[in-house]
Amino acid sequence: MSTWIWAAVLLAAVFAAAWGSDHLAEPLRKLRKQWGLSAAAGGSLIGIATASPEVGVNVTSAVRGVTDIGLGAMLGSTAIGIPALVSVGYIATRKRDIPDDPGHQQHLREHLLRVDPKAATVQALPYLGILALAALLILPAPWQGLQPIDGGVLLAAYAAYAAQAFFRGREKPEQVEWSRKGIWMAVAGVGVLALGAYFTVISTQNLVQAFGISPIIGGLFITAPVAALPEIFASWKVSRSGQITPALTNIIGDHAMTMTVGFLPLALVGTQIDNFRLVWVSFVFVALMPALYAAFVRWGGSEPGFRRWQVLTLVGAYATYVAVVVVWVLELV
């Protein structure tokens, strides 16, 4: 098949997986309200749905014996996710009126994208702890790579992360209505998500063969950026509706699940690291993003959120990552 056809299959597969996760996300949003979770804490719950395509890709990668694609997609998506969604959220809210935000005019004058400060303490800082644990399990030479025991440890870490987010972010519960149609759409969403994840891996396999590149590079720079597109579109829509904190905290919950539960399929089949320099450099930048996120939200100014220069700093950090990989790791320039 032509390279262009596989590229189209990849795009369609990613959007199919996103459609499936969207229909899984709606019941989880209702649960957030019913359980009385704050917007910041609810990001952990919604992250179960938004991270499910990455988890599905890793399951398929493990089953097909191409774990490097899954590993590359995980690292690539967690590196690009925060800069992409914060940038889109900032651009989407540069209009005159935002619902339910009486201070928006002032925020426009100050070039501020305001976010609930709990996003730093409830989401970003615990996520940094998860990344430190993942690096400790994967990178040191004596036990380098992923083994089944690593998957169990990371699964326990996600359970602890979700528990602290739920208990620290409690609010008054709300009454919600459940429909049979919504439940069946969620079930259908799981099926479509699995199908989309399968064809995401298949198309990436064919694209890396066509371009003559390694599977982990294909995961990093082909699968991951394309997989970020549905989240970018969703962030634009949610941010413009005035729900800025949910739009910009879901990504942390997404990444926390990706870097824990997402590693489980790769750990169960055993995954070796062939390009150690690429993986540790990726880990450095994957950790840098939430560190900047937390610092900007919590200590970046008199009001919590992102200012224009901070948004540009996040974008610059990702551009630096790409440059380091291309020039120093792969030595393509």
UniProtKB/TrEMBL annotation:
GO terms for biological process: transmembrane transport. The chain crosses the membrane at residues 69-92, 124-143, 183-201, 207-230, 251-273, 279-299, 311-330. GO terms for cellular component: membrane. InterPro entries: NaCa_Exmemb (IPR004837), NCX_ion-bd_dom_sf (IPR044880). It comes from Devosia pacifica. Residues 7-163, 182-326 form the Sodium/calcium exchanger membrane region domain. Keywords: Membrane, Transmembrane, Transmembrane helix. It is a multi-pass membrane protein. Its main location: membrane. The lineage of its organism: Bacteria, Pseudomonadati, Pseudomonadota, Alphaproteobacteria, Hyphomicrobiales. It is found in: Membrane. This is Sodium/calcium exchanger membrane region domain-containing protein. The keyword Hydrolase does not apply. It comes from the Bacteria.
